Each structure stands twice: as structure tokens, then as C-alpha cells.
């Protein structure tokens, strides 16, 4: 109910929906985490509890994360300029990386403090009011986790998804702290220090997960298979496109994709007619899928029996090589006794660069045993879309 009210209040127009929801998440996160930080810091100070103080600073780091989330969404929404022709969408990933590093630093600081508390234990001052305030803070974080989960689904944002998971982790952390605070009333053991240790490890692990999730798109992760399927399906719907390969997708943030692809077309169709069709496909698919599509045209000989028979033989040979995923651009060039078979081979990422020459040499040897009059030229390609 409250989530729906906030969403309706905050969204000005449909075009700015994603940015508005990202900012909403940041502002709500700052507000709730600031309140929790102040309350837990006071409780931790009054009760002399390192675990509650650690949990307070965990909320403080979450508040910093919310600030960076706001900066990230504002930066990623900036339009393209001369220096950044594909926009600033990756700013969101950089913001997430900064958040991750902050979370880990906080975790290591309280790991050190917790060890100190174990080595030099001090008696806790239990308060029923403080205990109930911790329980209330758990309900706040539970709501915040659901709130960010809802926004993450609407915006398809990795940062908001990670923020949601972080809130749910905080529910577990604060629950552990509250339990330890309650048990400290009945046992004489430095339980607070050990629970602080657990909390610190949770914080570090949360930071590690955030780093993993935010650095992956910066390094160049494989594209969404759904987007790849849509691109292939759209391309094959055009009359003269009979196959596609060498699909490369570069992501520059949410819904900002530069796509290049090779489209196979019959070689016996007029070149101007094919060019007009390729231009049409580029424009229409780019608009429909909200991408920038560049198509390279590869003519394929569909009627030459010599090419078709040679291709069948190569297909049989390649069945003995599981590391070979596919091949394309198969052609025969030259005349009389000076002919060459040329094609591109797509191999698994398990094949190392240093092993490529051996693989090519072995395949060429088997082809020339069948067709000794042909010179065989093979180029190695890699699969950049992870569909195989």
C-alpha cells in the first residue's frame, strides 16, 4: 500500500520512470537507514554492545550506498555527448562498485573491533526497550527489502536488486544481534563479540556479492539470451536472410546496446536489392528492440553442387570435434586445379589460443585427405553470446 503511494507520488512521467524509481529507492533508503543508524548507535553506546554498534554502522554504510545509488542513477540518465557517444549508462555500474567497496571496508573494520571485544570482553547492559527497538528495526528492514525488490522488478536494475538483497541480509544480521543481546542477559560469555564477528562476516560477504554483480557488466558479460533470441528471430523474418552468425553485443547501460551481426544472404540476388533489405532490417529492428544494429552482409552460394558436396564432407569431419560449435562463411574460390576451401570455425571457450593451430592443422589434414586438390583455409571465431 505504502509502496504504491510512493511510486505514484514520485513518478512524474513515463519517460523518467526508471530514473525516478531509482532516486525514490535512494531517498527512502537514506531516510530509513539514518533513523536506524542513530537509534542503534545510541543503544550500542548505552548497552556497551559491539554487535549493535557494528549493526548501526552497517546501516550507516547502507545509507552511503543509497547516496551513491542516487548519484549512479542521475549519472546514467545523462544524455550522450561528444566524449561519451553511447551515453553514461555504465555510471550505474561504477556507483554500484563504489558501494560494494564501502560495504567491505565497514565489514573489515568491525571484524577487527569484534576480535578486540572477544579478547577484552565487557559486561552488556541489557534493556528491554532497546531489545524491542531492535525488533522494530527488523520490520523496517523487511519492508525496505520488499520495497526495493518491487522497484528492481519494475526497473530491471542490478543495483536495486542488490540493495534489496542487502536489506534482507540486514534482517538476518539484526535478528542475530537481537538474539545475542537477549541471551547476554542470562550467560556470562563474550557472546556479543562473537555475534559482532558474524555480523562483520555477513557485511563482507554482502560486499563481495555486490562487487561480483556490479563489476561483471563493466568487464563485458555475456548478453541476455532473451535479447539474443529476439535479434535472431527478427533477422530471420526478413525474406533474403537465411542465417546469422558473429553476433556481438556491447552494453552501455540499461537499454543501450550496440549490436553487430553477420547476415547470410543468397549470392544470386541483385546486390542493390539486398542492400536495400539490409538497410530496412537495421532500421526496423533497431527501433523495435531499442538497440543500435549494424549488419554485415555475407553472400552464400546456394546452387553450386561442388560447394554443397564439400560442405557435407566438412560437416561429417567436424562431428568428431565436440569443441567445434559451428562453422559459417563456407565457400570455394579459384579455378581448375587452384581452388581453396575457406570457412570460419566457431570453437568453445575451452579451446585455448595456443591450441588453435593444432586444432586447425588436424581438421585441414582430414579435409585434404578427401579433397587433396583443394587448399584449405580456416579462420577461428569465438562465441560471444553463450547460446551453445
UniProtKB/TrEMBL annotation:
<keyword id="KW-0812">Transmembrane</keyword>
<protein>
    <submittedName>
        <fullName>Cobalt-zinc-cadmium resistance protein</fullName>
    </submittedName>
</protein>
<feature type="domain" description="Cation efflux protein cytoplasmic">
    <location>
        <begin position="223"/>
        <end position="299"/>
    </location>
</feature>
<dbReference type="InterPro" id="IPR050291">
    <property type="entry name" value="CDF_Transporter"/>
</dbReference>
<feature type="domain" description="Cation efflux protein cytoplasmic">
    <location>
        <begin position="311"/>
        <end position="382"/>
    </location>
</feature>
<feature type="transmembrane region" description="Helical">
    <location>
        <begin position="193"/>
        <end position="211"/>
    </location>
</feature>
<keyword id="KW-0472">Membrane</keyword>
<dbReference type="InterPro" id="IPR058533">
    <property type="entry name" value="Cation_efflux_TM"/>
</dbReference>
<dbReference type="Pfam" id="PF16916">
    <property type="entry name" value="ZT_dimer"/>
</dbReference>
<feature type="domain" description="Cation efflux protein transmembrane">
    <location>
        <begin position="28"/>
        <end position="219"/>
    </location>
</feature>
<feature type="transmembrane region" description="Helical">
    <location>
        <begin position="126"/>
        <end position="144"/>
    </location>
</feature>
<dbReference type="Pfam" id="PF01545">
    <property type="entry name" value="Cation_efflux"/>
</dbReference>
<keyword id="KW-0813">Transport</keyword>
<comment type="similarity">
    <text>Belongs to the cation diffusion facilitator (CDF) transporter (TC 2.A.4) family.</text>
</comment>
<feature type="transmembrane region" description="Helical">
    <location>
        <begin position="93"/>
        <end position="111"/>
    </location>
</feature>
<dbReference type="InterPro" id="IPR027470">
    <property type="entry name" value="Cation_efflux_CTD"/>
</dbReference>
<feature type="transmembrane region" description="Helical">
    <location>
        <begin position="21"/>
        <end position="44"/>
    </location>
</feature>
<dbReference type="GO" id="GO:0016020">
    <property type="term" value="C:membrane"/>
</dbReference>
<dbReference type="InterPro" id="IPR036837">
    <property type="entry name" value="Cation_efflux_CTD_sf"/>
</dbReference>
<dbReference type="InterPro" id="IPR002524">
    <property type="entry name" value="Cation_efflux"/>
</dbReference>
<feature type="transmembrane region" description="Helical">
    <location>
        <begin position="165"/>
        <end position="187"/>
    </location>
</feature>
<keyword id="KW-1133">Transmembrane helix</keyword>
<dbReference type="GO" id="GO:0008324">
    <property type="term" value="F:monoatomic cation transmembrane transporter activity"/>
</dbReference>
<dbReference type="InterPro" id="IPR027469">
    <property type="entry name" value="Cation_efflux_TMD_sf"/>
</dbReference>
